[in-house]
Amino acid sequence: MKKVLLGLILVLSISSFSASAQQCDESLKKQALKEMGDSQYIKDFSIDLRKAKKDMKTGFVKFSVILHSRNQYRFTVVNHPGNPEEVVMQLFDGDRMLISNFEGGKITKAPDFVCRTTKVYHLTFSFRSGEEGCAEAVISLVKQYAEGEL
Amino acid sequence: MLKKLFYFLLILSGTQLFISCGGCSDKKSKSGDALTLNDSLISDAPLKLSEDIMGEVIQNISSPVEMANLIKSSGAEFSQRILNNPDNVSRYETSYKRALNLGVFSADLGYINIYDKNNVVVSYLLAVKNLADGIRVGQFFDFNALRRMASNSTNLDSLMEMSVTSFNKMDSYLRDQNRSNVSTLIVTGTWIEGLYIASSVVKETKSKELAIRIAEQKNIIDILEIILSNYISEPNFATLVEDIRELKAAYAPIRITTELAEPKRIEKDGTLIVIQDEISTVHYTEEQLATIMDLISKIRNKIVE
After folding, report:
1. Residue A83 lies in a domain
2. Residue B197: predicted pLDDT
3. Fewer beta carbons within 10 angstroms: which end of chain A, N or C?
């Protein structure tokens, strides 16, 4: 009887963990959509950073994204309240970093980027000091500029 | 006491398993493989690009929002005449045609939503539903929720988010099932229809912004050609690749040059705005653009016929 009870407790804790992981996605996404303000939703990314055993640092996740010239994009990142620190987002063109939400030792909530060349860029997400956690990022369209307006 | 606790935990664990299995239905269908198609678009041939790269590329081309926004801000009036007709759906009897036109109707929906045309949105949603069911991916779209949102223009972001999420789930499922070719057809349909609508508006309004956006697609057509070429051994794809290559050739004379400017950083209302220091310019002639737009129209009409 005791063994069955222990087994059930184990099943419960596993299923509770997976349910909270699902909530992490959904509630964060809703919050990110709210925080992007009046801008127009384009795409979202679910970020789940896990540390491999014996690793001192978490890895990072990388996504490719096509951005169009003369468009002003907003990159909203919402962290799970349980994260030990905030996720760092960086936008790269090849190996050149264009923007980051971590500048001068502080995190900016949602930086904007005015794109002037249509092509494939790369977005990366990571923790500074090798922790685990999840976050949700949304790319939204703030403004489209006319030619010569910039 | 222990017995009571046991029963309580038993009930609770049953409930937990039931709740946490909310997303398990897809997996069940996968293992049962009830979703295979008669005119199978299932490919066993080795791909030149890995499934991961294919997925990244496919998910990148799929958003019709930016083009639709640009069309609206050009000042063009809404025109249902330029869209595909939902009555055509019954004519699409193969998975190939259904997948391509699922993309076409998705782009049409993006255009309809940007203009808040609630009166026509339901027939287009139904077209998408019928086509998605026809290629056995209807389970990834909650059509009742989409219909509710579509009838309320204030929900546009939620509607777009739900559509993108549904597409991503469907794409990931299709890749699991070795059916990336279906996703490829859907994004091709979306891309072509977006350009077709833009071309129709350019012909009418001479919008410079839209014309530049069409010309800029020179970079995207290369990616599309690469992913479609993965399936060139399939007869339907061979014809489509031929059409896309003809369009690529029409894009060839267009030049895109880049120059470096001073990087700019502005802080406005507490928001950091970074203005890119690399500026691209698209060089094209009216004749080159006209040839491209005619070819887009030809390919699109072939898809919807």
Report:
1. yes
2. 96
3. N
- The verdict on A64 touching B (C-beta cutoff 8 Å) is yes
pLDDT given for residue B28 in this prediction: 34
Strand partners, B283: B255
Taking contacts as CB-CB distances below 8 angstroms, the residues of chain B near A72 are 273
- pLDDT tens digits, one per residue of A62-82: 888 889 999 999 999 999 998
Residue B195 has pLDDT above 90, yes or no: yes
Q: Which residues of A touch B161 (CB under 8 A)?
A: 29, 33, 41, 44
B115-139 in b/e form (b: 16+ CB < 10 A) is beeeebbeebbebbbbbbebbbbbb
Question: Are A117 and B280 within 8 A, CB to CB?
Answer: yes
Task: Indicate yes or no: CB of B17 within 8 angstroms of CB of A15.
Answer: yes
Structural domain harbouring A123: 2-144
> Which helix (H) or strand (E) is B38 found in, with range?
none
- Which pLDDT score is estimated for B151? 67
Nearest to B69 among A103, A119, A144 (CB): A144
What integer pLDDT is reported at residue B78 of this predicted model?
A: 93
* CB–CB contact A113 B274 (8 Å): yes
Q: Chain A: nearest CA to B116, how far in angstroms?
A: 14
- CA–CA separation, B236 vs A33, rounded Å? 40
Exposure on the CB side of residue A104, measured as CA atoms within 13 A: 2
Q: Residue ranges per domain, chain B?
A: 46-254+285-304
The answer as to whether A86 is a domain residue is yes
For residue A149, is it within any domain? no
Question: pLDDT value at position A40?
Answer: 86
Structural contact between residues B159 and A33, judged by C-beta atoms closer than 8 angstroms:
no
A44 touches chain B (CB under 8 A): yes
Exposure on the CB side of residue B56, measured as CA atoms within 13 A: 15
Tens-place pLDDT, residues A86-142:
999 999 998 999 999 998 888 887 899 999 998 889 899 998 877 788 999 999 999
User: Mutating which of A66, A67, A71, A99 best tests the B interface, going by the most B Cβ atoms within 10 A?
Assistant: A66
Residue A150 lies in a domain: no
Rg over alpha carbons for chain B, rounded to the nearest Å, is: 22
CA distance A5 to chain B (A): 6
CATH number at residue A100: 2.60.120.380
Q: Which residues of A touch B154 (CB under 8 A)?
A: none
Total number of domains constituting chain A: 1
